[in-house]
Amino acid sequence: MTEPIYAVADIHGRRDYLDRALDLIEADGGGGAEVIFTGDLVDRGPESRAVIDTLMQGIAAGRNWQVLLGNHDRMFARFLQDGSVHDARIRSGITWTHHKVGGLTTLASYGIEAGAEVPLPDLFAATRQAVPAAHRDFLGALPRVLEREGLLFVHAGLRPGVALADQDPEDLIWIRDEFLDHPDPHPWLVVHGHTALEYPQHFGNRIDLDGGTGYGRPLHPAVIEDGKCWLLTERGREALEPAT
Predict the structure, then answer these.
(1) How far is CA 15 from CA 11, 53, 217, 235, in A?
(2) pTM (predicted TM-score)
(3) Number of C-alpha atoms within 13 angstroms, CB side, residue 35?
């Protein structure tokens, strides 16, 4: 028997959904449960600051919580560092401040009300003043991957056939097709988010827990125990079986 591990993917600034997920996890596994958050804490939803505060406070209180870096967290952290809003991995070329990406919504959660017409140097200066240094440090220290017995937790995925130590760090937070289309087993069952679905799915070699919270759909906390996965609901555990 292995200890259950709980996972939450792609919160995207929805503190209300995060609070519900944490309540469900505590009801199932108690306050000492290990919870791994697979990144994308921020953007699109209205309470990115509160999401980060909630996670930081829980960790400071001794909760067994591990938080991974997502691509949206990376974009926010990079803007905090140098004011950059571009990322080469966004194929369309839109920026972090574009409404589809949601960066301005994250800044609004820190009290920075700005439209796209605000000069970037002014927006950067306001952000550096408004965002606590502790939040910048927190985002800057997030790992990109966590390995557990038979399990690998990561935001986006990994490049098949490449050793974990040799993975491109950007793939871990951005990759899609090469990982999603790979049908064969990985050395672990990979638990990830990043690619939004209508509902979480188990694909046999990976579990995608991103049910589209960034687009207004519910957050689905999960528990993995002895190689099996369940989603947590108010009615209890709901088995998430591999697709056939």
Answers:
(1) 8, 10, 13, 21
(2) 0.97
(3) 26
Q: Does 212 fall in a domain?
A: yes
Distance of CA 191 to the CA centre of its chain: 11
Q: Return the exposure string of 102-120: e unless at least 16 CB atoms fall within 10 Å of the residue's CB, then b.
A: bbbbbbbbbebeeeeebee
Please answer whether residues 18 and 9 qualify as being in contact, where contact means their C-beta atoms are separated by less than 8 angstroms: no
Contact yes or no for 37/123 (Cβ under 8 A): no
**Domains in the chain, number:** 1
Q: Classify residue 244: in a domain, yes or no.
A: no
Q: Give backbone dihedrals phi and psi of 129, rounded to 5 degrees, phi first.
A: -80, -35
Q: Which CATH number do you get for residue 50?
A: 3.60.21.10
* Residue appearing with tokens 């046999």: 204
User: Which range of residues forms the domain containing residue 112?
Assistant: 5-239
Distance (Å, whole) CA 96 – CA 51? 19
Q: What is the mean pLDDT of the chain?
A: 96
158 assigned to some structural domain: yes
**181 found inside a domain:** yes
Amino acid at residue number 84: S
Helices (H), 83-151: 103-108, 120-130, 133-140
pLDDT at 116 > cutoff 70? no
> Has residue 1 got a pLDDT over 70?
no
